[in-house]
Amino acid sequence: MLSLLRASEISFPGEKVMEEAKAFTREYLNQLLAGRGEVTGVDQSLLEEVKYALEFPWYCSAPRWEARSFIEIHGQNHSWLKSNLNQKVMELAKLDFNILQCIHQKEIQFITRWWRDSEVAQLNFYRRRHVELYFWAVICVFESEFSQTRIAFAKVTTVGTVLDDLYDTYGMLDELKTITEGVRRWDISLIDNLAEKIKIAIQFFFNTANELAAEVVTKQGQDMTAILKDTWLRYLESYLQEAEWIATGYVPTFTEYIKNALASSGMCIVNLIPLLLMGQLLPNNILEQIHSPSKVQELSELTIRLIDDLRDFEDEKERGEMASIIECYIKDNPDSTVEKALNQIKGILHLSLEEMNGEFLKQDSVPLCCKKFTFNITRGLQFLYKYGDGISISDKEVKDQIFKILVQEVPIEE
Asked: What is the tens place of the pLDDT at every residue in 105-147?
């Protein structure tokens, strides 16, 4: 039943049989855990594995967290550990986890120093989440050879957080237009007359963007500055569009909202710079299969955006506010209720996840590590949002997860 559940979660659009299998197996396994099943003599570790599968389905099970959890689960399986071979496998798994953890600890120390030594660390208008953002990277792409990718991911998302909060809450519309024009021309002198805090933030952006662009040139062996600048511009123009809607009180149609939201998800830049630093040469014919306007890029942007918006809806509902995506949907469908709008958007997300399964598994010339990166980043965000917004508000669950992945080594018996 557990194997059937896992298989049913890797479904494609229109596979009703898989949907039925998923519903049936989840109900059966939940009843088993509740003590209402008729199965006897089941090893406790198998029950723990069932609990994990029900709590973290395929679409939100981050690889690194899964590794730590399965080491703990199978470490309790005394019948499995009776085999000398299995004991050696467990020992190797623990050693591998701890060795990689040492590498990850050095990387998070590097990221913390990088952030602390920058002037932007003195500002107080943005969320300081470089640890959580690095954690997002490491639970998705943990192998030692992808150190540069993880560090670039943490830098890009940290910059993105600063820009997000600048455009969303701190900057005035005229200031945001000036910033966007400065990025369009790639000319920082355009912001010379803006407030000091804004100048520090934008200088941080330009410094990081130029530094990462130089790394990409070295790794790829060709000048890719133009595509990087265009991608950053697309990202910031989407933020400016949102700011203009808010300033004018305009509620966009659902189609308008989604079109802009694809870019504001940040995946256009998150799924570019780290990918280019994975050690794989990505000529144009391959890059166009994984970056905008490719199908997998559109799906990853849509998935990340909807995950974030649905989480925002839950948080804003508690505060008595209306999430923007729900408001936009109801504008297009006046007869719809909030509940119907929510179900419709969840349906779009479900379909997007199924289509991503197909994109991941289809035969093409894209290196597997690049496909895994794009796919696992979407899984990682759902993992972080499992109990709430694990990035904006690092609650107990997320702190415990960070501690287990980055701080606490796996005990090894002498």
From this structure: 999 999 999 999 999 999 999 999 999 999 999 999 999 999 9
pLDDT digits (tens, 9 = 90+) for 210-261: 999 999 999 999 999 999 999 999 999 999 999 999 899 898 999 999 999 9
CA distance 203 to 197: 10
Find, among 405, 314, 413, the residue nearest to 68 by Cα: 405
Closest to 63 in 3D by CA, of 171, 173, 138: 138
Torsion (CA) 269, 270, 272, 273 in degrees, nearest 10: 100
Tokens of 350: 């479900």
- Residues 294 and 366: their CA atoms lie apart, in Å, by 12
H helix and E strand count, the chain = 19, 0
Kindly tell me the burial class for residue 325, based on how many C-beta atoms sit within 10 Å of its own C-beta (0-12, 13-18, 19 or more): buried
Q: What is the CA radius of gyration of the chain?
A: 23
Instruction: Look at residues 157, 147, 366 and name the one whose alpha carbon lies nearest to residue 277.
Output: 147
Written as six digits, the tokens of 363 are: 């035969």
Place of tokens 């606490």: 408
| One-letter amino acid for residue 52 of the chain | Y
Q: How many CA atoms lie within 13 A of 315 on its CB side?
A: 15
Evaluate whether 405 touches 101 at the Cβ level (below 8 Å): yes
Residue linked to tokens 């455009």 = 167
At 176-223, the pLDDT tens digits run 999 999 999 999 999 999 999 999 999 999 999 999 999 999 999 999
